[in-house]
Amino acid sequence: MAAFEVRGGKQLRGEITPQGAKNEALQILCAVLLTPEPVTISNIPDIRDVNKLIELLRDMGVKVGKLASDTYIFQAEGVNLDYMDSPEFVAQAGALRGSVMILGPMLGRYGRCQLPKPGGDKIGRRPMDTHFLGLEKLGGKLTLEGTDFYRIKVEGKLTGTHMLLDEASVTGTANILMAAVLAEGTTTIYNAACEPYLQQLCRMLVRMGANIQGIGSNLLTIQGVDRLGGTEHRMLPDMIEIGSFIGLAAMTGSEITIKDCQIPELGLIPDTFRKLGIQMEFRGDDIYIPAQKHYEIATYLDGSILTVSDHTWPGFTPDLLSIVLVVACQAKGTVLIHQKMFESRLFFVDKLIDMGAQIILCDPHRATVIGLDQQKQLHGITMTSPDIRAGVALLIAALSAEGKSTILNVEQIDRGYQFIDQRLNALGADIKRL
């Protein structure tokens, strides 16, 4: 088990460029299964989950060529369907939550797919019902072997239909969309997710020859086509990294410029951090955060305590609530953090309390943070990263704290953040990988 040894209390300074978006990558990479023609993808993040998915695609028979450090060419000309019956496939796919994204492309192009129950962060229940209900409405027949293995196939071709999703699941929408583009007839998906990453997938599929209307809305209309061709695609920068760097700058009183942010795609992220009192300037497509000694949480117009909660797009992303929570620890004022979508994502706050933060965990979904206003610094402790996002929140806390902190299980952080220790050390941090 790897660990970070962090010496906190240092101001950082300089420029940092966000990696490509992990959540987009998991969809985009699986979309290469829809065509036998070459697909070139750039700005791919060099992180564990993405690399494991590329390895899975290669072992399934997809030709993979690396053109540059962040650019690959894929050609799914001869996918080995028998590989899905192998113990190796079960082990690979079961260890990676992103493997769920092969369901739609494989069912749409080959008429069948099977998958062990995928892994991923332990952040609460993450049911896959939306995926399977949508694929079944297109004509897929689902069988469940035990509690951990899914098989889905179709007799003949998938057939377009109208469906109303039970939740606006990003991965569920993507899976259904990738199956529907090769189905016969018209499919309408109401209550579809409309995150920027889903819009990116739609635009890529359109360049490949798909017919999709309503991109960016919660009603997608797909006219099925017989086949898709190759294309080139560049992924967006990771909005979760961008938000994490904004929070890091404020928490450590640092002057940081975040480069190439694709600011129009960030939605409520900048404004939410501004509500915490964090100053920032947009300089072209860069975000400049000046060094601040203090930042104050806003209140509502009637003076009541601010609530920051997550919601489906265009609401605030749940992946950044842990960052907002830790940044609020050193703000002036009080904020209620309401994590609506996952019931275990706030269970890292006990580590922050041990570091000296003033937090009341109200229930599995809500925490009240009373900011210290830099009057008292957090102090370093030994802690364990429970998941990707909480791990980075704890890293930010450690970088702001007095003394030495040790963060165990940083493989979790590596799954989502590309060489984060090296990149932050270049700004003046003191992080040692053990």
Automatic annotation (TrEMBL):
GO molecular function, one term: UDP-N-acetylglucosamine 1-carboxyvinyltransferase activity
Principal location: cytoplasm
Stored Gene3D superfamilies: Enolpyruvate transferase domain
A Pfam family hit: EPSP_synthase
Pathway: Cell wall biogenesis; peptidoglycan biosynthesis
Catalytic residue positions: 121 (proton donor)
Residues annotated for UDP-N-acetyl-alpha-D-glucosamine binding in this entry: 97, 319, 341
Enzyme Commission code(s) on record: 2.5.1.7
Enzyme class: transferase
Subcellular location: Cytoplasm
Residues annotated for phosphoenolpyruvate binding in this entry: 22-23
SUPFAM superfamilies registered for this protein in UniProt: EPT/RTPC-like (SSF55205)
Enzymatic reactions: phosphoenolpyruvate + UDP-N-acetyl-alpha-D-glucosamine = UDP-N-acetyl-3-O-(1-carboxyvinyl)-alpha-D-glucosamine + phosphate
Key words, A-Z: Cell cycle, Cell division, Cell shape, Cell wall biogenesis/degradation, Cytoplasm, Peptidoglycan synthesis, Transferase
NCBIfam families membership: murA (TIGR01072), PRK09369.1 (NF006873)
Its job: Cell wall formation. Adds enolpyruvyl to UDP-N-acetylglucosamine.
Family under the similarity heading: Belongs to the EPSP synthase family. MurA subfamily.
Listed name of the protein: UDP-N-acetylglucosamine 1-carboxyvinyltransferase
Source organism phylogeny: Bacteria, Pseudomonadati, Bacteroidota, Cytophagia, Cytophagales
Encoding gene (name): murA
